[in-house]
Amino acid sequence: MTATNKIACLIVDDEPMALSLMEDYVAKIPFLELKGKCSNAFQALEKIHEEKIDVVFLDIQMPELNGVELSRTLSKNTRVVFTTAFDNYALEGFKVDALDYLLKPYNFEEFYNAAVKAKEWFDLVANASQASFSKEEIDYIFIRSDYKQLKIKLNDILYIEGLKDYVKIWLVKEDRPILTHSSLKKLEEELPVNKFMRVHRSFIIALDKIEAIERSQAIINKQYIPVADQFKQKFQDFVGRNSLD
Q1: Contacts of 199 (CB under 8 A, 6+ apart)
Q2: Structural domain that includes position 229
Q3: Which of 215, 166, 209 is nearest to 187 (CA)?
């Protein structure tokens, strides 16, 4: 999200009336863009893994997986505004660095003020990013694996494979991948777009490691990696820009 773009948001609550109220409030705020509404944390996780969500307006007390537990699984780029009928959760909200904490029943003004806090935070991040070096200048990342932070050179990455709550990072000259507790979405946000591309729900590939392309599959290190329909046009555009014919 940049200072000029809308904030992509998700609303999550197991009470239909509360969900409907948030939907109405979001529609009244011009800088918010509603990307979806979910009635439980598992639906929210699936949605967050599918596309980039800037902020989640999140109920805390939900069955099976509550809002605080869900928030702990999110990347640093997805922020949370908690909504709850119980004020005893406020401390938990601050522990997970929530942007704000709305106590039900809240009104539009309170919801709007929380949304403004989110906008101010993302504007600050966007301005700081413009002042710092771009991701294209990064040539390594740190990955937590086996209780260590491993430094991985981007040029050594062949492709990255998603496995629900984990990812495998396959490297040049290594028979076994590095396994880390993360998501493809989180890594996709950190990697430079001129070097890596998401081609499937389960795969990110290093563009310079493609050996051949066959039947909508990228061949890397003798592995056939499928290019899903939703990523096919972007991948074909890349191939076209780098083709001689």
Answers
A1: 205, 218, 225, 226, 227, 228, 231, 235
A2: 136-241
A3: 166
Residue 228 within a domain: yes
pLDDT at 106: 94
pTM comes to: 0.53
Q: 115 with 32: CB under 8 angstroms? A: yes
For residue 124, the domain's CATH number is: 3.40.50.2300
The whole-angstrom separation of Cα 46 and Cα 121 is 25
Residues 1 and 196: their CA atoms lie apart, in Å, by 20
Domain count across the chain = 2
Return d(Cα 168, Cα 29) in angstroms, integer.
40
Are 122 and 211 in a shared domain? Answer: no
What one-character DSSP code corresponds to residue 89?
Answer: G
Q: Find the range with the poorest average confidence among 110-114, 117-121, 195-199.
A: 117-121
